């Protein structure tokens, strides 16, 4: 007689919220070591499934509204649509598109949609509410034909091989392209709001950032040049792999100048030539032209 069991999960939204907050704790702890793999395992459904699923649960609380396959497909599709929209909205806020704002925004969205789903389901009779239902129907081994046994063994081996392959890919260190990220942002933390017009003696301020993707610790320093003349040296400072340095840097000119080239030159220890270069064009006006 086949083994048949039906599982009805009535608290799937509670599980989603619990896993989401658990992911926040892992990220807050740094996600180092084995926590990194747990962070990846929870981060993928957190971004690609949870937002869409909770939205679908809020919009369609009745089990007759959609079947299970439709809900799963729409959950992935809506998640892929919702997450970029949230990121686009964050781009126009003072926080920008960063890990913490994105994480908080998704948590709030999932929490809001789950609360709405709880409310709408609570207004329905229990027999009309949607809850995930899984049915496991396994025939007994002795009742299976020889061909079915062989196919079952092949399927189990394929699943084990796939799981082992995924584990190997996740746990094996991958060395990609080695490079250093070097950027300039306005003081609002966005790629805008750069100083364009200054008066003599007025300070222009920008955020300068360096991110090490060299797969080893690197010593850096930055030269600030104006009109080809060295004005200051920032550093040296050491960054480990994937570590970021971001700080405000100010500059000013003592004489009027049109289209003054302000250069930021990144050097690694031992470099004779700049490793990365960035520049701004600034108009420096005399004090009598200040409005």
Question: Approximately how much helix is present in the residues?
Answer: 25-40%
Write down the domain tally.
Answer: 2
- The residue ranges in which pLDDT falls below 50 over 5 or more consecutive positions are none
The largest pleated sheet is described as: 5 strands, mixed
Q: Kindly report the average pLDDT value.
A: 85
Please work out how many helical segments DSSP would assign: 6
Order of helices and strands: EHHHHHEHEEEEEEEE
How does this structure look, described?
This protein has helices at about 10-30, 35-50, 50-60, 70-90, 100-120, 145-170; strands at about 5-10, 135-140, 180-185, 195-200, 205-215, 220-225, 230-240, 245-250, 255-270, 275-285. A five-stranded mixed sheet has the order 4-10-9-6-7, with no helix packed on it. A three-stranded antiparallel sheet has the order 3-5-8, with no helix packed on it. The protein has a two-stranded antiparallel sheet with strand order 1-2. The model has no long low-confidence stretch (mean pLDDT about 85). The N and C termini lie far apart (about 90 Å). It has about 290 residues and is an alpha+beta fold. The chain folds into two domains: about 5-140, no CATH class; about 180-290, Sandwich (Immunoglobulin-like), CATH 2.60.40.
């Amino acid at each position: 007689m086949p083994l048949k069991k039906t599982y009805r999960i009535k608290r799937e939204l509670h599980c989603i919220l619990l896993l989401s907050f658990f992911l926040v704790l892992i990220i807050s702890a740094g996600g180092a070591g084995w926590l990194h793999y747990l962070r990846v395992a929870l981060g993928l459904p957190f971004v690609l499934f949870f937002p869409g699923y909770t939205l679908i649960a809020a919009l369609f609380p009745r089990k007759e509204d959609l079947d299970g396959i439709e809900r799963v497909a729409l959950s992935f599709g809506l998640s892929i649509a919702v997450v970029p929209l949230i990121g686009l909205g964050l781009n126009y806020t003072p926080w920008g598109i960063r890990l913490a704002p994105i994480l908080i925004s998704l948590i709030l969205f999932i929490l809001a949609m789950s609360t709405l789903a709880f409310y709408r389901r609570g207004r329905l009779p229990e027999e009309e509410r949607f809850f995930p239902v899984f049915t496991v129907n396994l025939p007994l081994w002795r009742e299976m034909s020889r061909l079915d046994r062989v196919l079952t063994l092949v399927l189990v081996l394929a699943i084990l091989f796939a799981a082992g392959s995924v584990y190997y890919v996740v746990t094996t260190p991958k060395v990609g392209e080695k490079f250093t990220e070097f950027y300039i942002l306005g003081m609002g933390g966005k790629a805008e709001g750069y100083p364009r017009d200054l008066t003599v003696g007025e300070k222009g301020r920008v955020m300068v950032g360096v991110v090490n993707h060299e797969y080893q610790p690197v010593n850096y320093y930055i030269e600030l040049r104006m009109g080809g003349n060295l004005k200051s040296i920032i550093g040296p400072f050491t960054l480990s792999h994937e570590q970021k340095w971001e700080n405000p840097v100010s500059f000013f000119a003592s004489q009027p100048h049109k289209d003054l080239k302000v250069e930021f030159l990144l050097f690694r220890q031992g470099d004779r030539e700049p490793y990365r270069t960035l520049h701004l064009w600034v108009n420096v006006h005399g004090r009598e032209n200040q409005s």
